[in-house]
Amino acid sequence: DGGITQSPKYLFRKEGQNVTLSCEQNLNHDAMYWYRQDPGQGLRLIYYSQIVNDFQKGDIAEGYSVSREKKESFPLTVTSAQKNPTAFYLCASSMDRTSGNEQFFGPGTRLTVL
Amino acid sequence: GNSVTQMEGPVTLSEEAFLTINCTYTATGYPSLFWYVQYPGEGLQLLLKATKADDKGSNKGFEATYRKETTSFHLEKGSVQVSDSAVYFCALSDANYQLIWGAGTKLIIKP
Question: Which among A4, A100, A107 has CB closest to B98?
Fold first, then answer.
Protein backbone atom coordinates (compact mmCIF):
# COMPACT_ATOMS: atom_id res chain seq x y z
CA ASP A 1 0.00 0.00 0.00
CA GLY A 2 1.27 3.43 -0.90
CA GLY A 3 1.11 6.09 1.75
CA ILE A 4 2.77 8.18 4.40
CA THR A 5 3.88 6.85 7.75
CA GLN A 6 4.76 8.88 10.80
CA SER A 7 6.34 7.60 13.96
CA PRO A 8 5.94 7.52 16.80
CA LYS A 9 2.21 8.14 17.23
CA TYR A 10 2.76 9.60 20.70
CA LEU A 11 5.96 11.19 21.96
CA PHE A 12 6.83 12.60 25.35
CA ARG A 13 9.76 14.91 25.88
CA LYS A 14 11.33 16.57 28.85
CA GLU A 15 12.03 20.27 28.65
CA GLY A 16 15.43 20.99 27.16
CA GLN A 17 15.55 17.85 25.01
CA ASN A 18 15.61 17.66 21.24
CA VAL A 19 13.31 15.10 19.61
CA THR A 20 13.04 13.87 16.03
CA LEU A 21 9.76 12.96 14.37
CA SER A 22 9.89 10.52 11.49
CA CYS A 23 8.04 10.86 8.19
CA GLU A 24 8.36 8.37 5.36
CA GLN A 25 6.44 8.16 2.07
CA ASN A 26 6.43 5.52 -0.66
CA LEU A 27 4.32 7.51 -3.10
CA ASN A 28 7.35 8.68 -5.08
CA HIS A 29 6.35 12.27 -4.34
CA ASP A 30 8.87 15.06 -4.79
CA ALA A 31 7.39 17.54 -2.31
CA MET A 32 6.99 17.03 1.44
CA TYR A 33 5.62 19.25 4.21
CA TRP A 34 5.49 19.53 7.98
CA TYR A 35 2.56 21.17 9.73
CA ARG A 36 1.74 21.94 13.32
CA GLN A 37 -1.84 21.71 14.56
CA ASP A 38 -3.01 23.21 17.84
CA PRO A 39 -6.48 22.69 19.30
CA GLY A 40 -9.12 24.76 17.54
CA GLN A 41 -6.66 26.11 14.99
CA GLY A 42 -5.87 25.44 11.39
CA LEU A 43 -2.64 23.97 10.13
CA ARG A 44 0.49 26.06 10.22
CA LEU A 45 3.38 25.27 7.90
CA ILE A 46 6.73 24.62 9.59
CA TYR A 47 8.98 23.55 6.70
CA TYR A 48 8.59 22.19 3.22
CA SER A 49 10.83 20.53 0.69
CA GLN A 50 10.27 20.45 -3.04
CA ILE A 51 13.23 18.27 -3.91
CA VAL A 52 15.94 16.20 -2.26
CA ASN A 53 18.63 18.21 -0.47
CA ASP A 54 16.53 21.37 -0.53
CA PHE A 55 13.98 22.78 1.91
CA GLN A 56 12.41 26.12 2.83
CA LYS A 57 11.07 27.64 6.01
CA GLY A 58 7.35 27.93 6.45
CA ASP A 59 5.45 30.33 8.67
CA ILE A 60 6.64 29.00 12.04
CA ALA A 61 10.11 27.49 11.47
CA GLU A 62 11.77 28.89 14.59
CA GLY A 63 12.83 26.13 16.97
CA TYR A 64 12.54 23.40 14.31
CA SER A 65 14.95 21.84 11.85
CA VAL A 66 14.60 19.36 8.97
CA SER A 67 16.66 17.39 6.49
CA ARG A 68 15.87 15.85 3.13
CA GLU A 69 18.65 13.43 2.29
CA LYS A 70 16.36 10.92 0.62
CA LYS A 71 13.26 11.43 -1.50
CA GLU A 72 11.11 9.27 0.74
CA SER A 73 12.15 10.70 4.10
CA PHE A 74 11.65 14.13 5.71
CA PRO A 75 12.40 14.02 9.47
CA LEU A 76 11.55 16.95 11.71
CA THR A 77 13.60 17.82 14.79
CA VAL A 78 11.93 19.83 17.52
CA THR A 79 14.74 21.57 19.35
CA SER A 80 14.91 22.92 22.87
CA ALA A 81 14.62 26.40 21.34
CA GLN A 82 10.97 25.76 20.51
CA LYS A 83 9.15 27.51 23.35
CA ASN A 84 5.85 25.66 23.22
CA PRO A 85 6.30 22.38 21.36
CA THR A 86 3.28 20.47 22.70
CA ALA A 87 1.09 19.96 19.61
CA PHE A 88 -0.06 17.54 16.94
CA TYR A 89 2.43 17.32 14.05
CA LEU A 90 1.36 16.33 10.57
CA CYS A 91 3.54 15.35 7.64
CA ALA A 92 2.25 15.55 4.09
CA SER A 93 3.47 15.04 0.55
CA SER A 94 2.44 16.01 -2.94
CA MET A 95 3.51 14.75 -6.34
CA ASP A 96 5.50 17.86 -7.14
CA ARG A 97 5.58 21.56 -6.50
CA THR A 98 2.73 22.35 -8.87
CA SER A 99 0.59 19.67 -7.21
CA GLY A 100 1.19 21.20 -3.81
CA ASN A 101 -2.47 21.81 -3.42
CA GLU A 102 -3.31 18.09 -3.43
CA GLN A 103 -1.53 16.88 -0.38
CA PHE A 104 -1.56 13.43 1.19
CA PHE A 105 -1.24 13.28 4.95
CA GLY A 106 0.24 10.90 7.45
CA PRO A 107 -1.60 9.95 10.66
CA GLY A 108 0.29 12.47 12.78
CA THR A 109 2.50 12.47 15.89
CA ARG A 110 1.24 13.94 19.14
CA LEU A 111 4.12 15.52 21.04
CA THR A 112 3.79 16.34 24.72
CA VAL A 113 6.43 18.18 26.72
CA LEU A 114 6.50 17.13 30.36
CA GLY B 1 -2.69 38.55 1.58
CA ASN B 2 -4.53 35.30 0.97
CA SER B 3 -6.81 33.99 3.71
CA VAL B 4 -9.63 31.54 4.37
CA THR B 5 -12.45 32.07 6.84
CA GLN B 6 -14.69 29.25 8.03
CA MET B 7 -17.71 29.30 10.26
CA GLU B 8 -16.90 28.57 13.87
CA GLY B 9 -17.80 25.26 15.35
CA PRO B 10 -18.81 23.03 16.72
CA VAL B 11 -21.75 22.46 14.45
CA THR B 12 -24.14 19.96 16.02
CA LEU B 13 -26.82 18.28 13.91
CA SER B 14 -29.12 15.31 14.13
CA GLU B 15 -28.68 12.38 11.76
CA GLU B 16 -30.28 12.97 8.32
CA ALA B 17 -30.19 16.75 8.73
CA PHE B 18 -28.96 19.08 5.98
CA LEU B 19 -25.43 20.37 6.43
CA THR B 20 -23.86 23.64 5.37
CA ILE B 21 -20.40 24.72 6.48
CA ASN B 22 -19.54 28.19 5.24
CA CYS B 23 -16.16 29.06 3.76
CA THR B 24 -15.13 32.38 2.25
CA TYR B 25 -11.74 33.37 0.94
CA THR B 26 -9.58 36.33 0.02
CA ALA B 27 -7.08 35.79 -2.75
CA THR B 28 -5.44 37.36 -5.74
CA GLY B 29 -6.01 35.65 -9.02
CA TYR B 30 -8.00 32.44 -9.30
CA PRO B 31 -6.91 29.93 -6.70
CA SER B 32 -8.00 26.32 -6.52
CA LEU B 33 -10.24 25.56 -3.54
CA PHE B 34 -10.36 22.47 -1.36
CA TRP B 35 -12.18 20.78 1.46
CA TYR B 36 -10.22 18.38 3.63
CA VAL B 37 -11.64 16.21 6.42
CA GLN B 38 -9.92 15.03 9.61
CA TYR B 39 -11.43 12.15 11.55
CA PRO B 40 -10.56 11.90 15.25
CA GLY B 41 -6.90 11.08 15.88
CA GLU B 42 -6.04 10.91 12.18
CA GLY B 43 -4.38 12.96 9.48
CA LEU B 44 -6.31 14.93 6.88
CA GLN B 45 -7.88 13.54 3.72
CA LEU B 46 -8.84 15.45 0.62
CA LEU B 47 -12.64 15.45 0.41
CA LEU B 48 -13.24 17.50 -2.74
CA LYS B 49 -11.80 20.30 -4.83
CA ALA B 50 -12.66 22.87 -7.49
CA THR B 51 -10.15 24.54 -9.75
CA LYS B 52 -12.13 27.31 -11.46
CA ALA B 53 -15.19 29.48 -11.05
CA ASP B 54 -18.55 27.67 -11.13
CA ASP B 55 -16.88 24.27 -10.76
CA LYS B 56 -18.66 21.93 -8.39
CA GLY B 57 -16.60 19.46 -6.41
CA SER B 58 -18.35 16.39 -5.01
CA ASN B 59 -17.49 13.25 -3.08
CA LYS B 60 -19.26 10.92 -0.63
CA GLY B 61 -22.46 12.97 -0.87
CA PHE B 62 -20.68 16.24 -0.08
CA GLU B 63 -20.70 19.11 -2.56
CA ALA B 64 -19.18 22.57 -2.84
CA THR B 65 -19.40 25.12 -5.64
CA TYR B 66 -16.67 27.65 -6.43
CA ARG B 67 -18.47 31.03 -6.35
CA LYS B 68 -16.17 33.75 -7.59
CA GLU B 69 -18.74 36.53 -7.23
CA THR B 70 -19.17 35.85 -3.52
CA THR B 71 -15.64 34.42 -2.97
CA SER B 72 -17.19 31.40 -1.30
CA PHE B 73 -16.88 27.62 -1.31
CA HIS B 74 -19.52 26.37 1.10
CA LEU B 75 -19.66 22.67 1.92
CA GLU B 76 -23.08 20.98 1.78
CA LYS B 77 -24.55 17.54 2.31
CA GLY B 78 -28.20 16.64 2.04
CA SER B 79 -28.40 14.02 4.79
CA VAL B 80 -25.60 13.62 7.32
CA GLN B 81 -24.68 10.45 9.17
CA VAL B 82 -23.00 9.88 12.53
CA SER B 83 -19.91 8.73 10.61
CA ASP B 84 -19.58 12.25 9.13
CA SER B 85 -18.54 13.56 12.54
CA ALA B 86 -15.10 15.08 11.99
CA VAL B 87 -13.28 18.37 11.56
CA TYR B 88 -13.61 19.95 8.12
CA PHE B 89 -10.98 22.32 6.71
CA CYS B 90 -11.38 24.68 3.81
CA ALA B 91 -8.20 25.65 1.95
CA LEU B 92 -6.96 27.49 -1.10
CA SER B 93 -3.77 27.19 -3.08
CA ASP B 94 -1.69 30.31 -3.46
CA ALA B 95 0.52 31.39 -6.35
CA ASN B 96 3.35 29.26 -4.96
CA TYR B 97 1.12 26.16 -4.88
CA GLN B 98 1.07 26.21 -1.09
CA LEU B 99 -2.15 25.61 0.82
CA ILE B 100 -3.67 28.37 2.92
CA TRP B 101 -5.90 26.82 5.59
CA GLY B 102 -9.02 27.83 7.41
CA ALA B 103 -9.24 27.18 11.16
CA GLY B 104 -11.43 24.11 10.74
CA THR B 105 -15.04 23.43 11.71
CA LYS B 106 -15.89 20.58 14.04
CA LEU B 107 -19.02 18.71 13.04
CA ILE B 108 -20.91 16.58 15.57
CA ILE B 109 -23.75 14.37 14.36
CA LYS B 110 -26.09 12.95 16.99
CA PRO B 111 -28.06 9.76 16.32
Answer: A100
Give contacts of B 16-35 with A, CB under 8 A.
32, 34
Q: How far apart are CA A30 and CA B79, in angstroms?
A: 38
Sequential DSSP letters for A60-81: T-TTEEE--SBTTB--EEE-TT
The span from the first CA to the last CA of chain A, in angstroms, equals 35
Verify whether the Cβ–Cβ distance A43 to B101 is below 8 Å. yes
Candidate from A40, A41, A100 with C-beta closest to B93: A100
C-alpha distances (whole Å) from A92 to each of A23, A68, B44, B104 are 9, 14, 9, 17
Residue A99, pLDDT score: 57
The Cα of A82 is separated from the nearest Cα of chain B by a number of Å equal to 22
Task: Count CB-CB contacts under 10 A for residue A5.
Answer: 12
Q: What is the mean pLDDT of each run of 10 residues along chain A (114 residues)?
A: 88 91 95 90 91 94 97 96 92 77 90 91
CA distance B63 to B9: 19
pLDDT tens sequence across B55-110: 999 999 999 999 999 999 999 999 999 999 999 999 998 877 788 999 999 999 99
